């Protein structure tokens, strides 16, 4: 199984989560992690799982104005975000194309919104099959650091994603083989 992880990160925390998710996925096959600015316009045909991650800004995916505000707080300059990349992503070419989403955010009670949930809605509209519910990882402050244990949790989530996608692929192959008999 080949996976592609596309990540938007401003302070490095979301990238650290992406790398941990990729570590978890690696046992199932090759994984490529790219920043959203370097992401292909669409995953290649042999990518079975697309994972996208971004920081939560103003209860959702970042926008140009929220990225500028983050830059004023010391974040890396970013001209494009996951919101813009998803807006140009073509629909999934296959009903077997899976996706998963994650985000980083501050763990405040009763604060709605998540970049992961917003990305999941967009990917569902593009006919990607969600391999898992959107996942949030927590930072202690805007610039981080990540809360203790989040990297291990992200690695374990990557392993569960790989298992879920592989199980679905095996079941699909079994149904195809039965249909051919």
Overall shape: globular
CATH topology: Rossmann fold
CATH homology group: Flavodoxin domain
- Secondary-structure element string: EHEEHHEHEEH
Protein name: Flavodoxin family protein
InterPro entries: Flavoprotein-like_sf (IPR029039)
Folded structure, characterized:
The structure is a single chain. This protein is of the alpha/beta class and 181 residues long. The protein has one domain (2-180): Rossmann fold (3-Layer(aba) Sandwich), CATH 3.40.50.360. It contains five helices and six strands. The chain has helices at residues 13-25, 64-72, 82-88, 115-125, 150-180; strands spanning 2-7, 31-35, 47-55, 98-105, 129-130, 135-138. Strands 1, 2, 3, 4, 5 and 6 form a six-stranded parallel β-sheet that branches. Strand 4 (98-105), helix 4 and strand 5 (129-130) form a beta-alpha-beta unit. It is globular.
Short summary:
It is built from 5 helices and 6 strands.
Layout of helices and strands:
Elements: E1 2-7, H1 13-25, E2 31-35, E3 47-55, H2 64-72, H3 82-88, E4 98-105, H4 115-125, E5 129-130, E6 135-138, H5 150-180
Parallel strand pairs: 1-2, 1-3, 3-4, 4-5, 4-6
Observed structural traits:
181 residues; alpha/beta; Rossmann fold; six-stranded parallel sheet; Flavoprotein-like_sf; Flavodoxin family protein
